[in-house]
Amino acid sequence: MCGRVTLRRPERVRLPRLDTRMLFATLPRYNIAPTQSLWTVTEANEERSLWALKWGLIPSWSKKPAGFINARAETLETRPSFKESFLRRRCLIPADGFYEWEKLGKAKQPHYFQVKDKEPFFFAGIWDEWQANGSAIKTCAIITTTANTVLATIHDRMPVILRDEELDTWLRSNAKPSELLELLRPFPDSEMEGFPVSTEVNGADADHPGLVEELPDGELVRNGMLF
Among candidates 152, 156, 162, 79, which has minimal Cα distance to 115? Predict the structure, then answer.
């Protein structure tokens, strides 16, 4: 699962054939939560566009505006909620880190994960447009896969982080499903790092640089207490 992400350096997002100037004025985000907006890159007729989509995919045929924040790579081809978007509406979601929670007794300790160079990267995503009562909402979901060893002790799932050479394939409209599924694998352990952070990130309204600072040794949650 991936339920909180960061984009601390939006002005450093780079992608060929994409005008990213609108990101220069975007405020850094340290705790983007579901139902909030995620920057999203789509491609149509070989032209790339940048959008702010609501995080929580609502299938176009859904009767209720209930969204999926994640889509499992293993069910993209078979689950009705994801299948058409996987085949026709893939996207890239820029980020530079994400949070996951470790269960420690009755408490949960948040951890922050990023690539070692701390630069922005792109999650593999899908999007859809839901319409009701004359209004339309464009939404997206982050695709997840099995965890690599950096995350495995914390959670059994992780978001799919695409490598630079894989981005064009993910956006290409005529890519074969078999080509796409090959991209949905865990990111290399050697290129990632993670560490415990403050439980303040649990609140969706918290959004400041201190959220991504590593906790000093010993300050971990234990049954709801800090030691």
Answer: 162
